[in-house]
Amino acid sequence: MKLLLIRHGQTPGNVLGQLDTAHPGPGLTELGERQAEALARSLANEPIEALYASTLVRTQITAAPLGRLHSLDVEVMDGLHEIEAGSLEKLTDHESHKRYMGTVFSWAAGDLDQRMPAGPDGHDFFERFDTAIARVLERASGGQATAAVVSHGAAIRTWAGRRAEDADHEFAAKHALANTGIVALEGDPDSGWRLIHWDGSPVGGLALADPTAEDPTGRNVEGP
Description:
By secondary structure, the chain is of the alpha/beta class. It has one domain: 3-Layer(aba) Sandwich (Rossmann fold). Helix content is 36%, strand content 16%. It has helices at residues 12-16, 30-42, 57-70, 94-108, 122-138, 153-163, 169-174; strands spanning 2-7, 48-53, 74-76, 146-151, 182-188, 192-199. It has a six-stranded mixed β-sheet with strand order 3-2-4-1-5-6, sandwiched between helices. Strand 5 and strand 6 form a beta hairpin. Helix 2 packs parallel to helix 3 (57-70) and helix 4 packs parallel to helix 6. The model has no long low-confidence stretch (mean pLDDT 93).
């Protein structure tokens, strides 16, 4: 199976550098709306058979143009949401960013016992994200199916950094995932996931990037 893990379009929190993980979360900026439309155009020829979004509204808005283009309903699925920031929620300072990203990449490195301040540990995250991906596979029509999942920067990078055979926590930390960036994988949980490509830039091109945004979960960072 081919799995497209797509980060949502730009939000006001991304611009401000907020650790913005709570439900239902913000919508998209004007740039984020354009990124979502460009995402759909960029994937027009991809044989997507199923489309999923997280329970945070920004992923659902991002997925909507892609759903219209492929005549697919956007299915909202539990477990695909962003990694909860706990007591770091809404903070914008560098130290909070470093603590948040350091924690999630430690999970990708295998230290699942480490806990986000007043938040989940790595066991919690991988259990719910693995369960969601397993449901995506259960509903696929076959081994050659392509499913698109619109999720979040830290969640995608952390999960792929541990589950993809061709990536690890250091790779995930050093490879940015801008808004509407895509991590494409092939395989399944039993045979393993092979990394096809990690497109860290907006799929509509660098003209849709915002270099002034603080965006802590999309940047290159130092691993644990």
